[in-house]
Amino acid sequence: MEESPRLRKHDSLSAVSFGVFLILAGTISVITPGLYEATVRFFKDFRLVQIAPNFFLPAPTSNHPVLYLAVEVFCYLWGLFKIIVLVLRFALGSSVYLKAKTFSRMIFWLGAGLLTGMLGTKIFGDAPGGWFAFWSAVAILLGLTLIVEAIILAVAVRSRPR
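Predicted structure:
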């Protein structure tokens, strides 16, 4: 909105974010006991599940709490980092587009952490039914974050002096 698309691509906070992403992913991989084995078991556990007549989708057949907990922790930490990025965007005077994008990503990652925790504690139900409920909830969350971003941008455009 306020910047050209070319300038938006070279945002320095995005480069820092990528570095933090790698540090978080690596740290969680190192400090979570048995994560590698849990990940291997997770992918070996997939089977085709019939969800409608003659319609099959892959799903794990059991719960994988170690993997789900690692993903949940990552989502929460990444969401908290997005809060820091949002504060920096306001302090640095970033465009409304970048602020809206960061805010919607923050909502998504914190929500994804919550949903992953629900998957790990079987609130969505046992596998494989809980697996499909989880992905349905993620789709709803994604839609919500896109709507929030659009509302912020629409309000910014309407309030801009003409």
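Summary: The chain has a mean pLDDT of 92.
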